[in-house]
């Protein structure tokens, strides 16, 4: 322990600042160190909810079109199949 302290004191102040700065860059964010992948999972889940709310009208329209296609009430416009 004494050797480490002496080594620390003998290194110039600028070198110590550089090593500290490089350690900060490599270090993970505190949320991931404390809680693991949980914050990322929550963010992804909340983003999905936001997307659903935002595109709710589009999704309901797509569901209606699919239902009509199934019932045969909506005709598919495209290439005609050869019979």
Distance between the termini: 88 Å
Query: Could you spell the SSE succession in H and E letters?
Result: HHHHH
Structural class comes to: mainly alpha
Kindly estimate the percentage of residues that lie in beta strands according to DSSP: under 5%
Radius of gyration: 30 Å
Average pLDDT for all residues: 77
Q: Share of helix among residues?
A: over 70%
Q: How does the overall form come out from the CA principal axes?
A: rod-shaped
Let me know the largest β-sheet.
Answer: none
Low-confidence runs: none
Number of H- or I-type helical stretches: 5
Total strand segments: 0
Descriptive terms for the model:
single chain, mainly alpha, 83 residues, rod-shaped, 75% helix, 5 helices
Present the secondary structure layout.
Blueprint: H1 2-10, H2 13-26, H3 30-35, H4 38-54, H5 56-71
If you had to describe this structure to a student in words, what would you say it looks like?
The chain is mostly helical and 83 residues long. Helices cover 75% and strands 0% of the residues. It is built from 5 helices and no strands. The chain is rod-shaped and about 85 Å long.
What's the short version?
The chain has 5 helices and no strands. The protein has 83 residues and is mainly α. The protein is rod-shaped.
